[in-house]
Sequence to fold (144 residues):
Amino acid sequence: MSGAVPAKLAEIRDDFLALERPERLQLLLEFSQELPELPERFADHPDLLERVEECQSPVFIFVEVDDDRVVHLHATAPREAPTTRGFASILVQGLAGLTVDEVLDVPSDYPLTLGLTEAVSPLRIRGMSGLLGRTQRQVRERSA
Fold:
């Protein structure tokens, strides 16, 4: 079932596609405000976080895979970078509670399906694709 978009990510995509372009940017801004804070345990260990170089803004991620092979994505991005924060939040929320296989099956072009390509720069879309790619790489490494 490769390339299947998990229900939560499909729901997020459909929410974006149901809106006109200006409202899509507003929804992205709302997602940016919903990015969960990093767990306390990362405060003393910033070295655990990986910089997402594809993003213009300083975005850092860390993936945990628990004993049940459920993925937990943590991300941080500055409040002054709402687009990037929004993308990170979409992935954090959309991948929450998914298994290793479900996360690895997310199509790499998912960021292109949100209907944001006309509203934000290709560089920013590439940043979201980088976020997804690095997340999937960390999932592979941590579940091997």
Summary: DSSP finds five helices and three strands in the chain. The helical segments are 7-17, 21-33, 82-95, 100-104, 122-143.
